[in-house]
């Protein structure tokens, strides 16, 4: 037997810059993943066309598409159109339209709310 030792294999360490870049990309991905969107877009510019006591369910569907949610409120059929985007960093952006119909399928009332507005902003 011989007293020879096996050669040592050295694995070079990765340079620091690629590790820093990988860490930065991982952080960016985590921040982007901190966003959630629920609902779907609807044509907010047409809300002003809704007429209480005149606009029908068929007209609402034609203008805004199928509702995102349906339900009942105070015995009235209710359709909701909404998009809600929440972020880990930054302000949420939300818009919703709730339309209530009478027994004849005509708009009895509606409400529209959004965070995308100019109210309260300096000119």
Strands, helices and their partners?
Elements: H1 16-33, E1 36-39, H2 57-64, E2 69-73, E3 76-86, E4 93-101, E5 107-114
Antiparallel strand pairs: 1-3, 2-3, 3-4, 4-5
The residue ranges in which pLDDT falls below 50 over 5 or more consecutive positions are none
Distance between the termini: 91 Å
Oligomer description: single chain
Q: Which descriptor suits the 3D outline? A: rod-shaped
Number of strands: 5
- Estimate the mean pLDDT confidence: 82
Helices and strands: which structural class?
Answer: alpha+beta
Based on CA atoms alone, the radius of gyration comes out at 28 Å
Question: Residue share in helices?
Answer: 10-25%
Number of helices: 2
- Percent strand equals 25-35%
Give the topology string: H per helix, E per strand: HEHEEEE
Largest sheet: 5 strands, antiparallel
Main traits of this protein?
5-stranded antiparallel beta sheet; 5 strands; 123 residues
Write a compact overview of the structure shown:
Helices cover 21% and strands 30% of the residues. It is of the alpha+beta class. A hairpin with a 5-residue loop joins strand 4 and strand 5.
What does this structure look like?
The chain is an alpha+beta fold. It has a domain at 35-114. It has 2 helices and 5 strands. Strands 1, 2, 3, 4 and 5 form a 5-stranded antiparallel sheet that branches. A hairpin with a 6-residue loop joins strand 3 (76-86) and strand 4.
